């Protein structure tokens, strides 16, 4: 992103710059770390299919709604919501959506940074040849001992957060986003290599049927809510980020087409990650329900046992850390933008304040893997609590409010012009007026009564 937000609210230099930033925010640990372990926990194909449905029927409409509102609001998320609500003759209270999004952003970044730290730590571990010849049991032990060491976790969390703060404070996020042009395709290529490795040496057939053989009976309320929450998480929705990106968007950009590009790329990377990981899981008799450690236990087995694996592993975790950084800067930036436009603090000051608050919260997450593992609220440790509260609660609720606002509280004529759909507008309108909001409600109610 370019220019000084305080005076003139700039626009993207090019459509490509905008897509790169949006993809950079969307593609990250959510695709490669979180998606596979959620697949594993929620019965594979049951999760896969509900997730795909959520992405298309709920994620895509909400992504375009956020851009549309942001483009009209031309400000940080909170003020954008307020401006657009006023333009439409509605209450300023709609700004609460922007505020809950910004809060969600702080909470997510705090634990995201801890996992980003794991990824950076694994650059060193993989590059040192540590994984050479290792079995699943051994890579599992490496992971467990990393978690057991609070100092190590805190150091890596601090490094990850420091790099994020530095990039945002220096205002060079655009440079990093442009780097995605090379890094994202490379990451996809690496995942492709891992899929081929899995197809040759792992239990590929078993993985395929785990991921794609329909098992409708396994879809329950919890799977639904997890899939819905993940659709929001992976597309960076419900947090004001996409609203903020929309505010830099020129009128000529086709919102739906751009949203489809982001959704397809994001989903493709996630599915590739699943295809890379599960053949290894089954070949090594690992537990599909291993949870957050799944990627960090499985992929090192592959790198430890393929030729050139030390270098490939090093590059892979570099790429993963890069993808995590392009997401974390988007998370931090949306909170910074608000502080910068609303307070006397400049960019560096705003970034430091927001960054330090997030870092402190992250310390609690890091410690919840070891010294504070017994600190539980509603049976969840701090890390799980933050994850569950944001993915299953704040994100879906803010997303819900955004589509309801667009569907029922904005003048539909101007939306029709902006979406440029011609005759297909009616179908699309039905999706964002009825399907997306009702989908979110059903999932919530199911969860309450289930
Ligand atoms: N979408 C990012 C990912 O999948 C995570 C993220 C969530 C980024 C929320 C920004 C906002 O890794």
UniProtKB/TrEMBL annotation:
<dbReference type="Pfam" id="PF00209">
    <property type="entry name" value="SNF"/>
</dbReference>
<feature type="transmembrane region" description="Helical">
    <location>
        <begin position="352"/>
        <end position="373"/>
    </location>
</feature>
<dbReference type="InterPro" id="IPR000175">
    <property type="entry name" value="Na/ntran_symport"/>
</dbReference>
<keyword id="KW-0472">Membrane</keyword>
<feature type="transmembrane region" description="Helical">
    <location>
        <begin position="153"/>
        <end position="172"/>
    </location>
</feature>
<feature type="transmembrane region" description="Helical">
    <location>
        <begin position="223"/>
        <end position="246"/>
    </location>
</feature>
<feature type="transmembrane region" description="Helical">
    <location>
        <begin position="184"/>
        <end position="203"/>
    </location>
</feature>
<dbReference type="InterPro" id="IPR047218">
    <property type="entry name" value="YocR/YhdH-like"/>
</dbReference>
<feature type="transmembrane region" description="Helical">
    <location>
        <begin position="393"/>
        <end position="410"/>
    </location>
</feature>
<dbReference type="InterPro" id="IPR037272">
    <property type="entry name" value="SNS_sf"/>
</dbReference>
<protein>
    <submittedName>
        <fullName>Sodium-dependent transporter</fullName>
    </submittedName>
</protein>
<feature type="transmembrane region" description="Helical">
    <location>
        <begin position="12"/>
        <end position="33"/>
    </location>
</feature>
<keyword id="KW-0813">Transport</keyword>
<feature type="transmembrane region" description="Helical">
    <location>
        <begin position="258"/>
        <end position="282"/>
    </location>
</feature>
<feature type="transmembrane region" description="Helical">
    <location>
        <begin position="302"/>
        <end position="332"/>
    </location>
</feature>
<feature type="transmembrane region" description="Helical">
    <location>
        <begin position="45"/>
        <end position="70"/>
    </location>
</feature>
<feature type="transmembrane region" description="Helical">
    <location>
        <begin position="91"/>
        <end position="115"/>
    </location>
</feature>
<dbReference type="GO" id="GO:0016020">
    <property type="term" value="C:membrane"/>
</dbReference>
<keyword id="KW-0812">Transmembrane</keyword>
<keyword id="KW-1133">Transmembrane helix</keyword>
<feature type="transmembrane region" description="Helical">
    <location>
        <begin position="430"/>
        <end position="449"/>
    </location>
</feature>
């Amino acid at each position: 992103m370019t220019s000084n937000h305080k005076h003139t609210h700039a626009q993207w230099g090019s459509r490509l710059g905008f897509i790169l930033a949006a993809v950079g925010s969307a593609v990250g640990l959510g695709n490669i770390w979180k998606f596979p372990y959620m697949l594993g926990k929620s019965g594979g194909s049951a999760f896969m299919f509900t997730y795909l449905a959520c992405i298309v029927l709920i994620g895509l409409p909400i992504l375009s709604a956020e851009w549309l509102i942001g483009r009209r609001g031309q400000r940080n998320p909170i003020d954008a919501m307020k401006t657009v609500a006023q333009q439409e003759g509605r209450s300023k209270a709609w700004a609460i959506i922007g505020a809950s999004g910004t809060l969600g952003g702080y909470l997510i970044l705090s634990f995201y940074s801890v996992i980003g730290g794991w990824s950076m730590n694994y650059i060193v571990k993989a590059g040192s040849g540590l994984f050479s010849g290792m079995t699943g049991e051994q890579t599992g032990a490496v992971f467990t001992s990393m978690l057991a060491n609070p100092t190590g976790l805190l150091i890596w969390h601090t490094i990850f957060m420091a790099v994020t703060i530095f990039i945002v404070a220096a205002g060079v996020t655009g440079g990093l986003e442009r780097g995605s042009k090379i890094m994202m395709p490379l990451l996809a290529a690496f995942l492709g290599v891992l899929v081929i490795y899995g197809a040759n040496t792992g239990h590929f057939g078993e993985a395929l049927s785990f991921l794609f053989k329909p098992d409708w009976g396994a879809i329950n309320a919890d799977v639904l809510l997890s899939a819905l929450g993940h659709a929001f998480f992976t597309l960076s929705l419900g947090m004001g980020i996409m609203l903020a990106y929309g505010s830099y968007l020129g009128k000529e950009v086709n919102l739906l087409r751009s949203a489809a590009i982001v959704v397809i790329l994001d989903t493709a990377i996630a599915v590739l990650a699943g295809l890379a990981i599960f053949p290894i899981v089954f070949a090594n008799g690992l537990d599909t329900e291993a949870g957050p450690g799944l990627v960090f236990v499985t992929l090192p087995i592959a790198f430890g046992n393929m030729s050139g694996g030390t270098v490939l592993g090093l590059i892979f975790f570099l790429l993963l850390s890069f993808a995590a950084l392009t997401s974390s800067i988007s998370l931090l930036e949306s909170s910074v933008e608000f502080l910068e436009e609303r307070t006397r603090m400049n960019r560096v000051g705003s970034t430091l304040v927001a960054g330090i608050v997030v870092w402190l919260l992250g310390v609690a997450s890091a410690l919840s893997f070891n010294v504070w593992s017994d600190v539980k609220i509603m049976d969840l440790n701090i890390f799980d609590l933050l994850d569950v509260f944001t993915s299953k609660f704040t994100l879906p609720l803010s997303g819900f409010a955004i589509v309801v606002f667009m569907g029922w509280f904005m003048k539909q004529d101007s939306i029709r012009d902006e979406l440029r759909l011609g005759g297909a507008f009616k179908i699309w309108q039905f999706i964002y007026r009825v399907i997306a909001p009702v989908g979110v409600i059903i999932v919530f109610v199911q969860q309450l009564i289930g």
